[in-house]
């Protein structure tokens, strides 16, 4: 399926299916039809079906136009209330309604869908929604189902907007391909995407697609040299080498004031829990435990492609958490890269151990800001459900900026506090720190309180716990109902483009 932007009416006229949007009236008794093709409005009003159509959000109806062409009318609800996310959802639902039918050419009347006031924005959101909704992870099926649609045209009846639309489309294409790239990584099976393969894939993608980005990969020997005892302790029971992938992007214009942002991601290609073994029902699905690293890489990728003004470092800590006779035993005391000792009371609290050494490594590069993302705690789902990402940190402005980026991207993010009592709870009586709190309460924030010990003085830091949102966002029609969501890549990308 090719998605094109068209400015000529003829592209709309000749499509097998025309897609138009309608809105409900104030009293909800009828609908308004701001369609580019006014003649079509007349035809629709003469159909029986139009009598009961009120333009409510989620409502849709097919009818046949006077030239025999099919038309899909999509209800958008109240025009004054419809915004970016309503548009994203309406397009996603419309795509689902027409992609299962046998149309070869489909044209969407963007002007009718323009509830966000800027036509370039409406076009870009439409393209984004189609890109996110049409995503499939089907490589393991014997046969891949091909879409009947050959071309899907976004018809814009405003030639003056061509330049701004092209720019918006190019940015959104870079973002959408990066969200889908992150989804592919998270969906990949853990026997295929182990740490060694994961590092290779990132190296190849960066080499092929991210011009000017430097890539350095550290393996077991280098991690030993770096004294990353915590990271290595998680890898101790694994059949695969641990990998730390370090990517660096430098913008075209650099001054001494150019802000340097470091991203750090948890890349547990599978989390069995280690000796603190997870029960089977909790273990299945733990291939997604590398979601934090896929998320930061996806955002990094999109920001590089879109020419972010900031210097950006991306650190991905990759290993699985497995069990063999060399696996770390609970009660072990291990020294971190920054010299602190950690009593590992639960080998299932492994993400924070990998992140701790990666955060210390990232801080050595003297960034202004460090943002990490991780599927870190089950407690995050208890606190915020499966729909909301948690943000915690040591710098209010950074947290606020992330919250604002999330809001602008229509992704749910909520701040949780880190309080002195929880910092104290992470202290061990026989080592500097322990890797779990003394009870199961406040688990998400206690994990953050642990991580804070590895952030250098003066570095602004925020931690995103994406355990709830990383997969199965079935409430979002533009996300697969099961599997990787790609959620938070868009928020982070926005932060990386204009984070203050
Ligand atoms: N990868 C898990 C976090 C997780 C659990 C995400 C369930 C999504 C659903 C993490 O490594 C983990 O196992 N955390 C433990 C920490 C505990 C031992 C303090 C948890 O949340 O149970
Ligand atoms: Zn774990
Ligand atoms: Zn984990």
Q: In one word, what is the shape?
A: elongated
Helix content: 25-40%
CATH topology of the largest domain: Aminopeptidase
- CATH uppermost class of the largest domain: Alpha Beta
Q: CATH architecture of the largest domain, please?
A: 3-Layer(aba) Sandwich
β-strand amount: 15-25%
Bound molecules: ligand BES, zinc ion
Number of helices: 17
Helix-strand category: alpha/beta
Q: Please outline the major beta sheet.
A: 8 strands, mixed
Name the CATH superfamily classification of the largest domain: Zn peptidases
- How many domain modules? 2
Number of strands: 18
Please report the distance between the alpha carbons of the first and last residues.
38 Å
If strands are numbered along the chain, what order do they take across the biggest sheet? 8-9-11-10-14-18-15-16
What average pLDDT do the residues reach? Answer: 97
- Uncertain spans, ≥5 residues at pLDDT below 50? none
Query: Which value, in Å, is the CA radius of gyration?
Result: 25 Å
